[in-house]
Every structure is written in C-alpha cells, then in structure tokens.
Specification:
alpha/beta; Rossmann fold; six-stranded parallel beta sheet; 23 helices; 16% strand
C-alpha cells in the first residue's frame, strides 16, 4: 500500500491549503505558541507543515507526558495547553492526562490523527475509537472526516476548552482529511447550539447569599479550584470579600493560592489531610459559602455527617456541580470572579459588620492547640516535611511548584508557603501519579523566567521521569526535589494504619540501605541532568542552594527520607470529618454545644 502523496502547499494567507496546513494555520491564528507531542503515521501529514511553523513543538518521550505538560502549561498560565498524538496507542496514551485535566478543569486542546475515513470501522492498523473512548472524560470530542471541517472544529474546540468551566477537548482528524485540499478562511463562524455557559450570576441569588453571610454567626468561605481557574481578579475579589466580611476561609487542595497562606483568615485546607481548624470550622459552621468547589469526597468525608449545622451557598460556573453531592440552600451559577465581586460589593455597602468574635475565639484556640507540625523520624533519616519547609524558605517567592501524588503531595500543600506569587500545581480529582515532572516541564515552558520545582516521590517519578530527557534536550531547566522514602508512601501509610503493617508490594528499593535501584543520581546524569543526593539534615540548605544555582540543565536532588514518616492530620476514607486525628491516636474534640 503506497503512502498518500501530500497535497502541495497552498496560499498561506488565504485560499487552498491541505487539511494538515489548515490544522497548523488555525492553531497559529488562535495564538498557540507551544505544542507538546509525538509524531506517528496518521498525524504525519500535520507534522510536515508544523516543521516550518512559528509554533514551538516539544517532542516528548510518551504521549501521557505531552498531556500533562500541556496541563502544566495551561494551569500555570491560564492559556489553553495543546498536545498532539497519532492514532491508536498514541491517542490512548493521552487518555489519563485528558481525564486528569477534565476533573481539575484545565483548558486543553488535544489533536489526534485517525486512520483514513474509508478505513474507519475496519480495525485498520492503529485504529482506535478515541472519540468514543474520551467522550466521558473530556468536555467534548470531535471526529473530523473532511478537510473543510478542520478549522471550524479546532476553533470550536479551543473556545469550548477555554470558556465556561474550562476543560480538555479532543479533535480527532482522519488522515484523509489532512491530505485533502480545502479553502481556508479566518475567522471561521462557530455554530455551537446549546453551548451557552453562564458567567454572570443572578443578582437575586447573590443578594440572598450576601444576606446569609451578614446574618451568620459561624460562617466559612470555602475557596475551591474554580477561583484559581478564574484568574487573578477572582483572587483579588476573594481577598476583598474576606477583608470586608471578617469571615474565615478554608481552601481545597485545588484552591491552594486562592488566598495567601499567611492571611490571618486562612485556616488552611479542609478534608482528609486538612488542618484541624479548617475541618472543625466546616463541621461547626452555620453557613458555608462555597465558591468553585465540587464538594468531593476527600473534602466532605461521610456526606451524612458533613457540616450538619450549615446552611450552604454553592456558587459554581458549572450548574451540574450544584447539588450533585450535597443539598444546597442558595445556588448561584456564575464565574467565580463575578460572584465574588458582587458579594464584595454587597459587603462593602452593608451598614454593619457581623460579630464573629466568639467564632474566631474558638478557631484561634484550635490553631493554638493543633498547629502544623511533625515528629523527627526515629530512624535518623531526613524528615520529608523539613525538606519541603526548607525548599519553601529558600526558593524564589515567584517559584512555581508541581507536586506528584501521594504523601509528598500532602506535605507540599502543608509546608510550602504560597503566600507570595507562587503557584502550586496538583493532580487533584484523578490523583495521577507521574503528573509532577511533565506538569513542571509545561509550567516552565509557559513561564521561562520562573524557577520551577517538582516535589515528587520515588514512585511517581519512575512513571514519567523519562521526560527529564525532554527537558534536557529542550533547555527546560526544571528542578526535582525527590522525596525518596523507598516506598509507595501513602499506600504504606494505609497498610500501617489499617492492614496490620503488612507491607504488600510497597517497597521500591530506591533508598539508602537498600539495593538503590535505580540510583537516581546516576540516572539523572544519564538523562543529561545534574544529580545530587542529600541524606543529612545539615546538608539540606546547601544542596537546595546548589541546585538553584544550576540553570543550564535540569536538576534532581535525591532526598533520602524516612519511610516511616506519615501525613497528619488524617481522616480515614469514608469516615466522618468529626473523626479527624491530629496525630495517631490524638483526636480533637468537637464541642458543638458551646455554640
């Protein structure tokens, strides 16, 4: 079977182009400056005009890395991230990253090649129904069979990804459409019947929410990831509302950075590994004003016992989230920045400020009795929390951090100070191990002047650490703080607490005193990176400082930490938030009768 001959280049300003050229020219017209991907047979026609494009293409080592890199690019910049893959395994390798972006509301545009239109349904070589596979895991998925449909589909996908509740959109384009000729015009007319996201909230409901806040005695503002996705103005509006109302704030994992960590009203993160004051505030509140939060199970614990005394105001740009998990008293559909702006205006216009003295006295007592902290490991190894504390203290105030998933992710949230202009990138809803390195790569590409760190675990790193090769070859000098406890730490913690210390298949043999396979320092060197190791507390600052001085290539620091370190506070999965333990066997009392 002979390869189809590519159509000759057309008029690059207007007129006849190949479908492949239409893809590239449409991306250029949309302002796309970077794409992450890997070429293959069915997307190869597009890589030919991409060769001469002003779009920077970064060749990753695995398509999952392309998806997470696009996510890191988008999450750190607010712009749409773009990834490209071929059909079959290339496209299916993107699925995890697309699902991850979908649940965390990250704007992504994924372009995949597909077998020729005539071959669809024949089980042709590297054919997979990626549209069917991704439809439940994306905001939308398109299948394009005609060259004339390419520009409208990509334009619509870009608009859908970046408007309303952001999310990933996939455009699957047949090879026959890429090689055919078409008329290209810009801009294209988009027709999206039924897609009309609401950004402006209903004023009546906002007034009701403002009145509820004014009349509350134990309110909590719950700041979710929707505030982060809405941008800097949403954060400014939240700060104004908090300062005007005097209400305390609890953040979700994805809401980290919505309000500075050192703001006096910030009680910290709620949920399974949240702070005691944050969890207690939610459980004892008479009003929860939630902005851009999904009320997921990691936040609520047992739904039947979550916030039993609270009236709930739920504001979200996605109406499907409101009332999905908990009963809502005042629903508000709208963008977080606009909801917060209107609430702040009502608070500013109020003649009287609510009296929350008793409420704050209770919360202040919890802050005093249950401060953030940790024990020094009994085995003499490094405390991972100390490593992250020192990294936070020494890194530039505008540094970007990306975390993997597991214990180190929770420690990053607890001990990184994001009070300044820092950003903390997380895989929240899907909890994707391997997210950290490629996400940091994308973040550094989007923010080339900002130092970018990965707080990763030895388990997570081994899933996508090969993308350090991509970083080394493309002058993307990220830095990896590898919290190496020689195990799948969070799984091991659960085995300690709930499975009688039967450590089934959680030892990774990567730490000191073991086989040390792989040797991460040698691996970093093989990847073209600088590799450092730290096993002593008095060396931590020195090694971090040394790593920060290296900007001509990526850096990996192998921090040899204790495998017995655990994440506290903790609520067991599915249990009531009332059962939070500050440390093992030490639970605070929730004395609701004092209210």
């Amino acid at each position: 079977m002979t390869e189809p001959k590519p159509a000759p280049p057309g008029d690059r300003s207007s007129g006849r182009l190949s479908g492949a050229e239409s893809i590239v020219k449409t991306l250029e017209a949309l302002g796309v400056d970077v794409a992450f991907g890997i070429p293959g047979g069915t997307i190869l026609p597009t890589y030919d005009p991409l060769y001469a494009s002003k779009i920077r293409h970064i060749l990753v080592r695995h398509e999952q890395g392309a998806g997470h890199a696009a996510t890191g690019y988008a999450a750190s910049s607010g712009r749409v991230g773009v990834c490209i893959a071929t059909s079959g395994p290339g496209a299916t390798n993107l699925i995890t990253a697309l699902a991850d972006a979908n649940i965390d509301s990250v704007p992504l545009l994924a372009i995949t090649g597909q077998v020729g239109a005539a071959a669809i349904g024949t089980d042709a070589f590297q054919e997979a129904d990626i549209v069917g596979a991704t439809m439940p895991l994306t905001k939308h998925s398109f299948l394009v069979k005609e060259a004339s449909e390419i520009a409208p589909a990509i334009s619509a996908a870009y608009h859908i990804a970046s408007s309303g509740r952001p999310g990933p959109v996939l455009v699957d384009i047949t090879k026959s459409a890429q090689t055919a000729l078409t008329d290209w015009r810009w801009p294209v007319k988009m027709e999206l019947p039924g897609y009309k996201p609401v950004s402006k909230p209903h004023s009546k409901q906002v007034r009701q929410a403002a009145a509820a806040l004014r009349n509350a005695r134990r309110p909590v503002i719950l700041a979710g990831g929707g505030i982060i996705r809405a941008g800097a103005q949403a954060k400014r509006n939240l700060a104004r509302l908090v300062n005007l109302s005097g209400a305390p704030v609890v953040i979700t994992l994805m809401g980290a950075g919505a309000i500075p960590d050192d703001h006096p009203a910030n009680l910290g993160m709620g949920g399974m590994h949240g702070s005691v004051p944050a969890v207690a505030a939610l459980q004892n509140a008479d009003l929860i004003l939630a902005i851009g939060s999904r009320f997921d199970d990691r936040l609520t614990g047992d739904l039947t016992t979550f916030a039993p005394l609270a009236q709930v105001v739920h504001a979200d740009i996605d109406p499907a989230e409101i009332g999905k998990n908990i009963e809502v008293d005042i629903p508000i559909v709208g963008a977080a920045d606009q909801v917060l702006a209107e609430l702040a205006e009502f608070a500013a216009a109020s003649d009287s400020k609510p009296d929350f003295k008793r409420w704050w006295a209770y919360l202040a007592g919890l802050r005093k009795d249950y401060p953030p902290g940790y024990d020094q490991p009994s085995d003499g190894r490094l405390a991972p929390q100390y490593v992250i504390e020192r990294l936070s203290a020494l890194a530039p105030k505008d540094a970007i951090f990306a975390a993997g998933v597991g214990q180190h992710q929770m420690w990053a949230q607890q001990f990184l100070d994001i009070s300044g202009e820092r950003k903390l990138l997380n895989s929240g809803g899907l909890g994707t191990m391997g997210y950290g390195v490629p996400a940091a790569m994308g973040a550094r590409v989007a923010n080339p002047s900002k130092q970018t760190w990965v707080v990763d675990g030895d388990g997570c790193f081994q899933m996508t650490g090969h993308e350090l090769v991509t970083c080394a070859l493309n002058n993307i000098p990220i830095k990896v703080a590898l919290i190496n406890n020689s195990s799948l730490g969070m799984v091991r913690q659960w085995q300690t607490l709930f499975y009688g210390e039967r450590y089934s298949n959680t030892d990774l043999h990567t730490g000191a005193g073991t086989q040390m396979i792989p040797d991460f320092v040698k691996l970093a060197d093989a990847y073209g990176c600088a590799g450092l190791r730290c096993a002593e507390g008095d060396e931590v600052d020195k090694v971090i400082t040394e790593a920060m001085a290296i900007e001509d290539r990526p850096v990996l620091i192998d921090f040899q930490v204790s495998s017995d370190a655990q994440v506290w506070p903790m609520i067991a999965g599915g249990a009531s938030n009332d059962t939070i333990e500050y440390a093992r066997g030490l639970a605070p009392a929730f004395e609701r009768d004092e209210f």
